[in-house]
Design a protein that fits this description.
The protein has helices at residues 3-6, 29-33, 52-56, 69-74, 83-86, 129-143, 176-183, 188-207, 268-271, 278-294, 304-313, 319-322, 330-339, 351-362, 371-379, and strands spanning 12-13, 90-98, 102-109, 112-121, 153-158, 164-169, 220-224, 230-234, 252-253, 259-260. Helices cover 33% and strands 14% of the residues. It is globular and about 55 Å long. The protein starts with a helix and ends in a 26-residue tail after the last helix. By secondary structure, it is α+β, with helices and mostly antiparallel strands. The longest helix is centred in the middle third of the chain and has 20 residues, at 188-207. Mean pLDDT is 75; it is low at 1-14, 23-38, 43-74, 245-260, 373-385 and 401-405. β9 (252-253) and β10 form a beta hairpin. α8 (188-207) runs antiparallel to α10 and α13 (330-339) runs antiparallel to α14. It has a five-stranded antiparallel beta sheet with strand order 2-3-4-6-5, with helices on one face. It has a three-stranded antiparallel beta sheet with strand order 1-9-10, with no helix packed on it. Strands 7-8 form a two-stranded antiparallel ribbon.
Length: 405
């Protein structure tokens, strides 16, 4: 990527209060935004990017403190006067999570004989009725899913204060992200068992025409199975289609105001803004497995546009070649690389097919891979993949002029 092209993309942090881009300066907010109506106008020094030290002392995804009363009124209130929701029969026990777009509470209800998690969203991203309707539609689709490896969604609604909320299973186990962070990487047998269960969850959802779009270790919960081992629960199905932050907690904007997340697990077609099907989730699962087996993602960059460019154009290095100190079977390496094929038609056709390949690997047999994927992995020795000829690099995340709707 040339320097002159890079200059055409300016990444800006997004204000957690008003969701507008923050002007990159340490000057006062009044001098910052004079004549710049598209920028954050909150009366604080949010214009200054948060330092690494400040980030380390703040909970992941936590909204920064806001000084003025006016900004505080716009900020998502952590208490949000929950009394209007208790009328729906919910008893709030504790706040268990906090993100840039939502708070998560542990709750009970007479409707379900189990602990629940209630995710209550900020109002500002859903002031547009069309966006709110889309969230409701995706939540209603998720409600129809019924599979042991999926986090069940029980209810979507609006509180009297107009806060959208979702009621889901309360998942007490650690996430795969937390396990990787603690242990570095997972043993082969454990990871295969986890991946097989994820494939089962994906198969059920894809049969109901629902794509996850944001499959990553943070959305994989590992509960204790009755007979020992891990019992997988996949959460947040389909919701990423609606939320303005489809990647990790950090949010970015281009100079043109387009917002996108960190594409660490995004498929090439998702980075290019193309139409998606279940094979996009298979690519994300390949990224997840690669990281879980090695502790490293197949591609990395501090710049999300560069990272997206790598997802689209670079060939992933074999796990066995890159990490010769980790004992990874050839068959499993081949399964992961097949999931990471750039073209959807070269990946596993379905999550069920990927599960079959994983079971064969688990049993010490040769997995059945798509013919195109086998030919590609054997014949492509020239280095990185080329960006598709009909695509301009500016199409990444819909940055180009010909963004697909």
């Amino acid at each position: 990527m040339s320097a002159d092209k890079e200059q055409r993309i300016i990444l800006r942090e997004v204000c957690e209060t008003c969701s507008r881009p923050i002007f990159p300066s340490q000057a006062t907010i009044s001098s910052l935004t004079a004549g710049r109506p598209g920028f954050c106008h909150c009366s604080s020094l949010q214009a200054r990017p948060q330092s690494a030290e400040a980030k380390s002392s703040t909970a992941v995804g936590a909204a920064p403190e806001v000084a003025s009363d006016a900004a505080a009124e716009r900020r998502f209130d952590p208490n949000i006067r929950l009394l209007d929701l208790t009328e729906g029969g919910y008893q709030f026990l504790d706040r268990i999570g906090k993100g840039t777009l939502s708070y998560v509470y542990q709750a009970r209800s007479g409707k379900v004989d189990a602990l629940l998690a209630m995710k209550i969203f900020r109002r500002s991203p859903f002031e547009n009725k069309r966006t709110l309707k889309r969230l409701e539609q995706e939540a209603n689709k998720a409600k129809q899913l019924n599979h042991p490896n999926l986090c069940s969604v029980y209810e979507f609604g609006l509180s009297e204060k107009q806060y959208p909320y979702l009621v889901m299973d309360f998942l007490a186990g650690p996430t795969l992200e937390e396990v990787i962070s603690t242990e570095g990487f997972l043993e082969v047998d454990r990871l295969i068992d986890i991946a097989i269960q994820i494939c089962d969850a994906l198969t059920h959802a894809h049969q109901h025409n629902l794509i996850h779009r944001d499959l990553k270790p943070a959305n994989i919960y590992l509960l204790k199975a009755k007979g020992g081992g891990d019992f997988v629960k996949v959460s947040d199905f389909g919701i990423a289609k609606v939320l303005p932050n489809p990647g990790r907690e950090t949010r970015y904007m281009t100079a043109d105001g387009e917002e996108f997340g960190n594409p660490s697990y995004m498929s090439p077609e998702q980075c290019l803004g193309e139409r998606l099907d279940g094979r996009s989730d298979i690519y994300s699962l390949g990224c997840l497995m690669y990281e879980a087996l090695s502790g490293k993602l197949p591609f990395s960059s501090s710049n999300p546009v560069r990272l997206g460019f790598k997802q689209v154009s670079q060939k992933p290095q074999s796990l066995r070649e890159r990490f010769n100190d980790i004992d990874i079977p050839d068959a499993l390496d081949a399964v992961v690389l097949c999931a990471l094929e750039k073209k959807p038609e070269n990946r596993f056709l379905t999550a069920e097919k990927m599960k079959e390949a994983l079971i064969a690997t688990q049993e010490g047999k040769k997995p059945k891979l798509p013919n195109k994927a086998v030919n590609t992995s054997q014949a492509d020795k020239e280095g990185p993949y080329a960006l598709p000829k009909d695509k301009n690099w500016l199409n990444l995340f819909g940055l180009g002029q010909n963004k697909k709707k």
